[in-house]
Amino acid sequence: MIKMRALVKEKPEPGFVLKEVQMSENLEPDEVLVKIKNVSICGTDLHIYRWDEWAQKKIKTPQIDGHEFVGEVADIGSQVSMVKKGDTVVSETHIPCKHCIQCRTGRMHVCKNLEILGVDRDGVFAEYVKVPEIVLWKIDKSIPIDFASVMEPFGNAIHTSLVTELTGKNVLITGAGPIGAMAIAIAKHAGAAKVIVSEPKEYRIELAKKMGADLIINPQTDSVIDKVLKNTDGNGVDVLLEMSGNEKAFRDGLEVVTNGGEVSLLGVFSGNLSFDINGLFTFKGLTLHGITGRKMFETWNIATNLLKNKIIDLSPVVTHKFKLEDWQKGFEIMNKGESGKVILQVE
User: Fold this and answer.
1) What is the pLDDT of residues 227-246, one digit of tens each?
2) For the residues of 90-148, what is the DSSP string, one character each?
3) Which of 30, 120, 161, 274 is the most buried (most CB within 10 A)?
4) Omega into 62 within 30° of 0, i.e. cis?
């Protein structure tokens, strides 16, 4: 048995517990044991930390949570061939069954029997994790380790942004958290004419500026609808990238998408939504792209190329690093919206 430190959702209540746990050393033929170097905190982890309605419906306790990480291959199963001991790897967090119609037709990221690391099974807020070989992605040595640990959410930003053509289009991003901030740079490099951001928290407003936003609107002091229309000649935006998980932000965003426009929805909402879907969506002829995860492994390849060729710099987004023992500090500043991406150093 492997004894290790792990951050555990021990009971169905807010918070986590850092404790020593045991994990079997035995590996299935297709499994890989990874020694974790860095993990980063995701918005999903915040939902679990807060124990909101979504988390209560989804998470079974006790469980190790977390899913964004970089690590080193420590051991491999008998049938593993794509990675070897000592390789530095990151991981797709959508674990596919490999047998359903989605998996068989190139859509593993929406596998019918999907398991999500740190949500449906034990995750990576720990010193080690076991995952099937199919989800691992070896990283280029030129990519900084801090960037590697946030490649999973960077992939979210890529998939959300590039699911539609952005060249020459006006884009609204609702929410300038870490993924929204990454999406700003992606949209700019994809040729968006104007990138507008809606964000109420001062820290993240500054982050949006650093990532190249053309216009930032604070919805607590200005009308998003009025400002967007004024800055798009009354036409509204062509594309909405919803990153906030906030109902009002989403509703305002739908209001200013031009007729026939497109909506890319990544934000996770705490509960059910209630708004005029007929007036805001159906009668406007909008196209909605529901985004879950990344395309396997098209998005990972794009992320690797963008980072190793220094097309996009993620250093403004990675704002804080703490030891695993100081996990609570990381969650507190993320919960207040006073950070970009927060990394927990495990090794």
Assistant:
1) 999 999 999 999 999 999 99
2) EE-SEE--S-SHHHHTT-GGG-TT-EEBTTTB--SSBSEEEEEGGGEEEPPTTS-HHHH
3) 161
4) yes
Assess whether 47 carries a catalytic annotation: yes
Please say whether the beta carbons of 219 and 200 come within 8 A.
yes
* Catalytic option among 47, 94, 109, 159: 47
Is residue 12 a contact partner of residue 63, using CB atoms and an 8 Å limit? Answer: no
Closest by alpha carbon to 55, among 111, 119, 117? 119
Q: Which of 44, 93, 164, 258 is catalytic?
A: 44
3-state secondary structure of 329: helix
Q: What pLDDT sits at residue 195?
A: 98
Query: Which residues of the chain are under the pLDDT cut of 70?
Result: none
Taking the CB of residue 220, how many other CB atoms lie within 10 A of it? 8
Question: What are the residues facing 71 on neighbouring strands?
Answer: 36, 89
Token pair 């507190």 is found at 332
Contact 126, 64 (CB under 8 A): yes
Architecture of the domain whose range is 164-290: 3-Layer(aba) Sandwich (3.40)
**Contact call for residues 93 and 1 (beta carbons, < 8 A):** no
pLDDT digits (tens, 9 = 90+) for 163-200: 999 999 999 999 999 999 999 999 999 999 999 999 99
Block residue for tokens 């700019």: 188
Tokens 């930032």 belong to residue: 216
Rounded to the nearest 10 degrees, how much is the dihedral formed by the CA atoms of 159, 57, 288, 103? 50
Asked, as a colleague might, if the bond just before 297 is cis with ω within 30 of 0, I would say yes
Is 289 an active-site residue? no
**Structural domain boundaries in the chain:** 2-153+294-345, 164-290
Three-state SS letters, 16-48: CEEEEEEECCCCCCCEEEEEEEEEECCHHHHHH
Terminal C-alpha separation, the chain: 19
Residue 311: Cβ within 10 Å count: 12
